[in-house]
Amino acid sequence: MRSTPQQREGRLLLVPLVAFLLLFLSFPALVDIVYALSNVTFQTMRSPELVGLRNFQTVIADPEFWSACWFSLRFGVLTALLECALGLALAIFLSPVTSRHGWTIAILMLPMMVAPSMVGLMYRLVLHEFAGPVPYYLNLWFGNSPALLDANHAFWTLTVVEVLQWTPFAFLLFHVAYISISPEIREAAAMDKAGPWHILWRIELPMMKPTIAVALGIRFIDGFRVFDNVFTLTGAGAGGSTTSLSIYIYQSFFKGGQIGQAVAASALLFFASLLALYGGAMLKYYVNRGRAGA
């Protein structure tokens, strides 16, 4: 079957994208595969020594790797849930204000405009045990101030900082989804004597489910791979208490000089992400299939 002019034009337009992917993705991926299977340092980058799966075995046997995975998983799940819950509440209950005064949205977006590394540095100064204003006023008012950046409190401090900065992102998504619901639907429900809470739980939230799922996914991914604000605020933390997976890979690569192990750890993260995406896609397929069969 001969291709149509439109098909030939479509293939021609795909050529730059395919060339870009081959040039900027396939070559680095090939180098990563070689390094993950090699004993390589900064001195031997041009002549890596193949060692097979030894780097993967070393990483898997490293307790610090699993501790970093656990930190990233907890941090990603908790921050995603908190940000989406607060963003959804703000989008719904501030809707009357934002609909009349659109400029309020710009004010709510301000925390998101600051670079995460700058946020980490700012809170590092604000929460400093000796020079920070927060510990000072806590001591002044209550006579005591916990060490907010020590091993016992750093995780929750980082969670609060992350939520404060990125809740506006979730709010923006939910605000757009909320105002896109047709007013006629709400009016029809009100004519059927449905109350505000009934409309919220039975009509508005179900219609916002795709947006909620997307927001949870994006915020979990961003929280799981967190690096910059954690690194500038606490680094690896006392006893490695705030070592995320990204910080673990950074330390293995730049501080430890174990390039092969760092690349192997990132490859394990990549494979885990692929499995999670595949599992989610298969779950969605079977759920849709079950609904169609029902």
Written account of the structure:
The chain is mainly alpha-helical and 294 residues long. It has a single domain (35-293), classed as MetI-like fold. It is built from 15 helices and 2 strands. The protein has helices at 5-36, 54-60, 63-93, 95-100, 103-108, 110-113, 116-126, 133-142, 154-179, 183-191, 196-207, 209-224, 228-233, 245-255, 259-293, and strands at 38-39, 49-50. The protein has a two-stranded antiparallel sheet with strand order 1-2. Helix 14 runs antiparallel to helix 15 (259-293). It is globular. The model has no long low-confidence stretch (mean pLDDT 83).
Structure, briefly:
The chain is mostly helical. Helices cover 76% and strands 1% of the residues.
Topology (SSEs and partners):
Layout: H1 5-36, E1 38-39, E2 49-50, H2 54-60, H3 63-93, H4 95-100, H5 103-108, H6 110-113, H7 116-126, H8 133-142, H9 154-179, H10 183-191, H11 196-207, H12 209-224, H13 228-233, H14 245-255, H15 259-293
Antiparallel strand pairs: 1-2
Helix pairs in contact: 1-15, 2-15, 3-9, 3-12, 3-14, 9-12, 14-15
Beta-strand residue fraction: under 5%
Number of strands: 2
- The CATH topology name reads MetI-like fold
Secondary-structure arrangement, i.e. CATH architecture: Orthogonal Bundle
User: Any idea how many domains?
Assistant: 1
- Classified by CATH, the class is Mainly Alpha
| Helix percentage range | over 70%
Number of helices: 15
Q: Note the run of SSEs as H and E.
A: HEEHHHHHHHHHHHHHH
Low-confidence stretches: none
Strand order, main sheet: write it out.
1-2
Rounded mean pLDDT score: 83
The global form is: globular
Whole-angstrom Rg = 24 Å
Biggest sheet, open or closed, and with what strands and sense? Answer: 2 strands, antiparallel
Gap between N and C termini: 40 Å
Structural class: mainly alpha
* CATH superfamily caption: MetI-like
